[in-house]
């Protein structure tokens, strides 16, 4: 039993009265609180080994308890305390504090804003390293960093309300975004300082690092100003959220690069998996960029995730692009290298497709920057008695690039056609070309065009009914070049009274078409001309010639609708002409010939997307097939019904092929060479 002295009892009575006054406006029971405090005092005396509580010891204990209560009160009212503490650290009038505050605004807001706008207007980083903002969502993600940082800084400096969870979330997310881009730009940071003097280019790799460090500093201020201090891992969760968001934005590019890797594998099953992935989820511009870009180390997130020691080459990427889309890579415009502010010549010179590696070669290769066809005219004369046509195609090119260009095109001629004339304009004068063997003409072209940089044009055969046209140099900075070649071709005779011919078309080219360029078409004949295309206008000339004229876009010219049909006199079956040597002549006779049907045939059906308009005709032919001739069908398609377990093509009966083809969705471009080899 602990006793109290009279002085101690008097001191306790005074303290009890003060306690009742303090708790008067609260919901707590003052008497109950007083009993708890008295019990606590006696427990402390017992711990101290006291039998009697005097006034001096009681006052000392009460003083300690008041100090502890004041400390607890400060913890429960940290709103006011944090506000004062932060403003004391941020709003001091000292020069060093003002400098630190200005530096925080510079590195967290102003610097990233300037860098963001610089990249949006010039796309400089896109040319030298990778595109940090390939989509509008990427722009919004990066734009949130300076905007969010500015919002929190303003909140800390001006608003008396406490820092809330949204402010912490914004800073954590922005810091995570800055960290990810810092890692992506890390390989370029060591050399960025040397490149700063080149159009401010060195600032681009440094900006994420600077913004990340500023974000950490800002996070420290936020923690100091908030009511309840956040746990350290809160910043980590913000970074995880930023990574997840960026990964979601990069998923189309990641899946595309992954699909390219798979499609380039040696295992055919893996190839098919990659092709199907690209058709379903692939990003076409990324595939197209791989067709022009030499394999190199790039720094974006999707490239990190699909890093390979054996990257996909240009040639492989071009073959994959065809298999996925069904179009040659040079049938569409290459990735854009021009900004809204004009051409960035320094970047342009660094791009792979600025340097034409196929100059003087025997392939069309990729499209080159700045080269356009600005005029195209096709004039054709059909001689029905001789069942022939003569067509001249005039082309004019313009080169906006800073380097001389070579125009190249793969051109499909009318069936059985040959080039019988070739003309080049030099100083507005027509110059006729000479004819020689393939090797001699190519050697002459390479010597004159590539080495001496003079003005030749070369046309060589490139497969059945196809030619390769190339001319060099098309002068730089707006220079032009004009050529014309003539084609002589026989009519395709359905019977002695009707014939038809196809206009020549470009199946591959390394140049773009100016704007909405259309081919001007003029076809004339002594006999009536017709065409299925509604864009042709038929008329009768004063001299008795029948005329078809029109303006056809390039895709329309390639289509079957551009076929010209002509009527002829059935009695005209023999035609002769003088040969080059006067003592000789050439006699041509039209006659019907019958052929013996084979015992068995095998069809190879192209399952490419371009065959979609013709599938109904193939199905009709299968339904009406003569059962006396054994037919086997091999469908060149990478869809599962047409692939055997050993990954070769299935050989089907007409009935199986009919059921399969009726469900076939033609897609991409198929490997017809492998199918033909297997059928052979």
Based on the model shown, name its key terms:
21 helices, 5 domains, 4-stranded antiparallel β-sheet, single chain, 680 residues, alpha+beta, elongated, 26 strands, 9-stranded mixed β-sheet
Give the topology, please:
Blueprint: E1 3-4, H1 6-22, H2 30-47, E2 52-53, H3 55-76, H4 78-90, H5 95-122, H6 124-128, H7 136-158, H8 165-185, H9 189-192, H10 203-225, H11 233-263, H12 268-281, H13 284-292, H14 301-305, H15 314-325, E3 338-339, E4 342-343, H16 345-350, E5 371-383, E6 388-399, E7 405-412, E8 418-426, E9 429-432, H17 438-451, E10 457-461, E11 466-474, E12 479-490, E13 492-495, E14 498-501, E15 505-509, E16 512-513, E17 519-525, E18 529-531, E19 537-540, E20 546-552, H18 554-558, E21 564-567, E22 574-578, E23 585-589, E24 600-606, H19 615-623, E25 630-636, E26 651-652, H20 654-661, H21 672-679
Helix pairs in contact: 1-2, 1-3, 5-7, 5-10, 7-8, 7-10, 8-10, 8-11, 11-12, 12-15, 13-15, 19-20
Write up what this structure looks like.
This protein is of the alpha+beta class and 680 residues long. It folds into 5 domains: 3-67; 86-230, no CATH class; 252-336, no CATH class; 356-588, Mu homology domain, subdomain B (Immunoglobulin-like); 600-679, no CATH class. Strands 5, 6, 8, 9, 12, 16, 17, 19 and 20 form a 9-stranded mixed β-sheet that branches. It has a 4-stranded antiparallel β-sheet with strand order 10-11-7-15. A 4-stranded antiparallel β-sheet has the order 13-14-21-18, with no helix packed on it. The termini are far apart.
What is the CATH domain class of the largest domain?
Answer: Mainly Beta
Q: Can you count the beta strands?
A: 26
**Given the helix and strand composition, which structural class is it?**
alpha+beta
- Helix percent reads 40-55%
Beta fraction:
15-25%
- As residue ranges, the low-confidence spans are 338-353
Estimated radius of gyration = 41 Å
Helix count from the secondary structure assignment = 21
Characterize the main sheet. Answer: 9 strands, mixed
* Mean pLDDT across all amino acids: 80
What's the shape? elongated
The CATH topology label of the largest domain is Immunoglobulin-like
CATH architecture of the largest domain: Sandwich
The CATH superfamily of the largest domain bears the name Mu homology domain, subdomain B
What separation lies between the terminal Cα atoms? Answer: 114 Å
Count of distinct structural domains: 5
């Amino acid at each position: 039993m602990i006793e109290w002295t009279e002085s101690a009892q008097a001191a306790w009575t005074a303290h009890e009265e003060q306690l009742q006054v303090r708790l008067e406006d609260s919901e707590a029971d003052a008497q109950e609180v007083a009993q708890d405090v008295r019990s606590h005092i006696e427990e402390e005396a017992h711990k101290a080994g006291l039998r009697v509580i005097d006034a001096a010891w009681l006052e000392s204990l009460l003083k300690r308890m008041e100090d502890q209560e004041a400390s607890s009160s400060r913890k429960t009212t940290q709103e006011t305390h944090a506000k004062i503490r932060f403003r004391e650290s941020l709003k001091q009038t000292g020069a060093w504090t003002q400098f630190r505050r200005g530096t925080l605004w510079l590195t967290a807001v102003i610097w990233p804003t300037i860098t963001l706008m610089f990249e949006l207007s010039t796309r400089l980083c896109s040319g030298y390293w990778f595109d940090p903002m390939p989509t509008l969502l990427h722009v919004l993600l990066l734009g949130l960093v300076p905007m969010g940082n500015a919002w929190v800084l303003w909140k800390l400096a001006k608003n008396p309300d406490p820092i809330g969870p949204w402010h912490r979330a914004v800073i954590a997310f922005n810091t995570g975004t800055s960290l990810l881009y810092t890692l992506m730009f890390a390989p370029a940071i060591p050399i960025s300082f040397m490149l700063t003097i080149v159009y401010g280019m060195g600032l681009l790799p440094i900006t994420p690092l600077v913004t990340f460090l500023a974000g950490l500093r800002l996070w420290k201020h936020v923690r100091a100003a908030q009511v309840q201090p956040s746990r350290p891992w809160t910043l980590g969760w913000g970074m995880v959220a930023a990574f997840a968001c960026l990964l979601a934005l990069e998923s189309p590019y990641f899946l595309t690069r992954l699909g390219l890797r798979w499609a380039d594998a040696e295992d055919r099953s893996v190839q098919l998996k990659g092709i199907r992935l690209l058709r379903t989820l692939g990003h076409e511009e990324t595939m197209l960029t791989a067709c022009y870009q030499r394999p190199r180390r790039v720094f974006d997130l999707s490239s990190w995730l699909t890093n390979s020691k054996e990257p996909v080459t240009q040639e492989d990427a071009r073959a994959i692009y065809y298999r996925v889309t069904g179009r040659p890579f040079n049938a569409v415009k290459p990735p854009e290298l021009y900004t809204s502010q004009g051409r960035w010549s320094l970047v342009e010179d660094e791009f792979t497709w600025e340097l034409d590696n196929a100059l003087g070669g025997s392939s069309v290769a990729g499209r080159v920057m700045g080269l356009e066809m600005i005029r195209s005219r096709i004039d054709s004369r059909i001689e029905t008695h001789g069942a022939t046509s003569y067509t001249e195609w005039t082309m004019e090119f313009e080169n906006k690039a800073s380097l001389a260009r070579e125009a190249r095109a793969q051109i499909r001629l009318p069936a059985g056609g040959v080039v019988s004339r070739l003309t080049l304009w030099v100083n507005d004068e027509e110059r006729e070309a000479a004819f020689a063997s393939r090797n001699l003409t190519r050697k002459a072209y390479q010597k004159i065009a590539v080495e001496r940089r003079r003005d030749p044009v070369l046309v060589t055969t490139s497969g059945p009914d196809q030619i390769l046209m190339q001319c060099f140099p098309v002068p730089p900075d707006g220079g032009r070049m004009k050529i014309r070649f003539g084609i002589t071709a026989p009519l395709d005779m359905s019977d002695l009274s009707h014939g038809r011919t196809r206009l020549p078309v470009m199946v591959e080219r390394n140049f773009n078409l100016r704007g909405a360029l259309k081919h001007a078409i003029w076809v004339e004949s002594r006999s009536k001309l017709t065409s299925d295309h509604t864009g042709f206008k038929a008329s009768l000339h004063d001299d008795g010639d029948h005329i078809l004229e029109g303006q056809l876009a390039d895709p329309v010219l390639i289509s079957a609708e551009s076929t010209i049909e002509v009527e002829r006199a059935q009695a005209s079956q023999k035609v002769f002409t003088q040969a080059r040597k006067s003592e000789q002549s050439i006699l041509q006779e039209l006659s019907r010939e019958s052929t013996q049907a084979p015992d068995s045939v095998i069809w190879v059906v192209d399952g490419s997307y371009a065959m979609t308009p013709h599938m109904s005709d193939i199905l009709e032919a299968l339904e009406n097939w003569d059962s006396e001739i054994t037919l086997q069908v091999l469908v060149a398609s990478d869809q599962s019904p047409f692939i055997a377990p050993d990954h070769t093509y299935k050989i089907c009966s007409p009935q199986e092929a009919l059921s399969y083809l009726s469900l076939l969705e033609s897609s991409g471009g198929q490997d017809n060479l492998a199918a033909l080899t297997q059928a052979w």
